[in-house]
Amino acid sequence: HPHCEKCYNQHCKIPIDISNSCAFISCRLNCGAAFHLCKEDEHRLLCPKETVPCLNSGYGCPMTMTRQRLAKHLEVCPASVITCTLEWNRWPVNEADTAFYRNALQDPNYMSQMDLAMALRDQKLLFSSIQMKTLFPELIEKTEEPEVPLDGAVGGVDPECWESLNLNPEEMLENSLNGEEVQELTQEERLALAKSKDVACLENYGMWERMFVKEKEGCKQTVKNLEDKSCSTKDKEDPRVTPQNSHDDIAITGLAPWQDGVLDRLGKEVNVAEYNMYLVRNGCMLINFGQLAACTPKEKDFVYGNLEPIEVQTVHSFNLPKSYRAKRSHLKDPSQIVKKTHQNVDTSDLGIAIEELPKANEAEATLLCALERELKGHQICETVGTDGLYVDIGTQTYDFHSAPFNSDASLADVVEDQPQNLHVQIQTECVTRRHNKSCSAFTYLCCHAFRRDEYPWHFRNVHGDIQSCLTGWFLQRCPLAYLGCTFSQKQFRPSKYQATVSYDTDLSTFILQPEVTASLYKGVRIANSDRKRARNLDSLSRLPFEILQHIVSFLDSVSLGCLSQVSQLMREVCSTVLQQKGMVYLKWEKKTYSHGGFTWRARKKAWEFSSLFSPVDKWVFDDMPPMAEHLKVCPFYQKEIRSEPVALPSMTDLQERRGEFQTLVNSVLTTVKAHRE
Is the peptide bond before 404 cis (omega within 30 degrees of 0)? Predict the structure, then answer.
């Protein structure tokens, strides 16, 4: 109403008028707002007590609540998921430290060592990401292309027209220059060719077909419009006009690539930009129809006229400092350049047969080439120009036991059957991409997903407390580890309960394992009479469903995820706390259409628990013996006992120093005496 639109008085007492105003009411949900009746629908969009779905309902959250609780709910919303993007780097193993890594993997319980287990997980991800064909294309197994049968047609197409089916743009251009006419396919042949899987260059055909089908349809539409326009004009001027005359006029006025004089008409009717765009889009068709020459004739080449030389002036706007020294590779004085000779070097110069040459290690050589490419942007065996004058030519080949490799083989597939070795260091460096870091280190990402209220504790406990202090502080190793000793001990535990930190290879993260006393395992055994039943339940599963719900309410996310995989009953129990402790996200799938296009759509909603363990606010030292107790029995600690006295370096020339000191004292006394006189 006119009055209600401008009325903001909370105590409006204007009489009701159907044409001007309506009744003045209060909010039905008792939020305290008062307004005219016609504004009730607008108020429901802002009322704090209106029941609305969560803001993340489109991402899977099923919760509904009053509008005033939306902000508080977002802190614990199961659809508000955060992915951890922390990065850390690992250097390759130094050749001097191979003794420790070799001995560490021989220990049967090496996976219980957190730093070693995490390094093996990172190495597995690294090996899976390195493709052999990108580093060693010459060692990839060559696959033979399927031969086209000559005794019949494939897919309904005659074998004699295979050359015309291979729509290579260079060959089409060459055929048009030689005057050869490219055979056009019928609609049936195109459909048969599209369904056939044995046609060579099928990808090229599909690309060119999609490219020209739009141009062909556009040309047909242009011709149709011109025909309609020409026919209507001719009918008005002279109704005795014949169809032949109409087609002649279309050939003179049309803009299709196959019509005569199309370029001349375009030059007069459109601007330069549209003319050039027409040449770009229809250049191949113009060449095929003879409207455009494929190359410029010699007589039309541009010839320079009288050219006057221009004086070149060099302006020195920067003076080199006196401390500057040019590098050898950038010296421009030919007399100061080291002379080089071209000489071919081959393995035959070694005097060893090719079969007797040592084989390279797949993992070490591949990591070396990967680092070389990342550091310098090229491989070791590539030819690279150092500047505009000189080119470094180097050839280095590798010979592996497992060569040749499959086209889709990764480094993990190559070393799968080989003994397990560690090629990256157990120490990590946390340097993000926002800082300059060395390219000779491999980078890893955390990539674990958490609820918004869980992420701060994950970053603090896992990355801040454990991972950053893992080497030398959280996990203490023997000081003689560089000699090969693999002894280690964990120094910290949570302050409120007894638990040990370990690395879970299945979850790829650190977890807390509580230390359960032996008394809690009493009574867990099942009676013999119960074992004969079809449904054999343990003592925990026999509890009522409500009690099980109460028990799982005290568990953390990683424990709930593990418990849900024990049995169907435990999975149903854990699903009751999904909205309180779980998280939901959309599962996307790629849908490809028949015309070649594709799109992504959400297929379903997936619920799961994160890998967060119980938050630890404080860590304390665990009760363990000092490292000195281990050194007493360490096999790498070799004592060297000496019984004969050894002179210190300061005692070797003691007599000489006494004589020099006496001479110095005498000279000082003589100087003082002369000064007094």
Answer: yes
Question: What is the pLDDT averaged over residues 610-630?
Answer: 90
Cα dist from 663 to 119, 152, 677, whole Å: 65, 115, 22
Q: Rounded to whole angstroms, how far apart are CA atoms 525 and 510? A: 31
Cβ-proximal residues to 475 (8 Å cutoff; 6+ apart), any chain:
113, 114, 115, 488, 489, 490, 491
Residue among 404, 364, 406 nearest 101 (CA): 364
Q: What count of other Cβ atoms lies within 10 Å of the Cβ of residue 613?
A: 24
CB of 146 within 8 A of CB of 533?
Answer: no
User: Which residue has tokens 């040309």?
Assistant: 219
The single-letter DSSP state of residue 414 is H
Angle at 366 between CA 365 and CA 372, to 5 degrees: 90
CA 406, distance to chain mean position in Å, is 23
Q: What is the DSSP letter of 62?
A: -
Residue 605: its H or E element:
strand 598-608
CA distance 290 to 661: 108
Sorted by where each begins, the domain ranges of the chain are: 2-81, 257-294
- Residue pair 285/295 in contact (Cβ under 8 Å)? The answer is no
Reported as a single tens digit per residue, the pLDDT across 163-181 is 433 444 344 434 433 444 4
Residue pair 549/576 in contact (Cβ under 8 Å)? The answer is: yes
Q: Which residues of 365-380 are buried (b: 16+ CB within 10 A; e: fewer)?
A: bbbbbbbbbeeeeebb
* Residue owning tokens 């993997």: 105
Long-range Cβ pairs for the range 241-247 (8 Å, 24+): none
Please give the C-alpha separations between residue 32 and each of 35, 69, 324, 622, in angstroms, as whole numbers. Answer: 10, 17, 78, 58
CB contact set of 102 (below 8 Å; sequence gap of 6+): 421, 484
What is the torsion angle, in degrees rounded to the nearest 10, for the CA atoms of residue 383, residue 388, residue 390 and residue 392?
-20
| 624 touches 489 (CB < 8 A) | yes
Please state the φ and ψ torsions of residue 584, each to the nearest 5 degrees: -125, 145
**CATH architecture under which domain 2-81 falls:** 2-Layer Sandwich (3.30)
Q: How far apart are CA 402 and CA 415, in angstroms?
A: 9
In 3-state terms, what secondary structure has residue 83?
strand
Structure tokens given for 149 = 């049968």
CA distance 535 to 122: 42
Residue 10 has a pLDDT of 78
Contacts of 548 (CB under 8 A, 6+ apart): 540, 569, 570, 573
Question: pLDDT tens-digit profile of 501-553?
Answer: 889 888 889 998 888 777 766 655 544 444 444 455 677 888 899 999 999 99
Q: Hey, what long-range contacts does 465-468 have (CB within 8 A, 24 or more apart)?
A: 465/616, 465/619, 466/114, 466/501, 466/510, 467/88, 467/118, 467/428, 467/430, 467/510, 468/430
Q: Indicate the pLDDT class of residue 654, thresholds 50, 70 and 90.
A: low
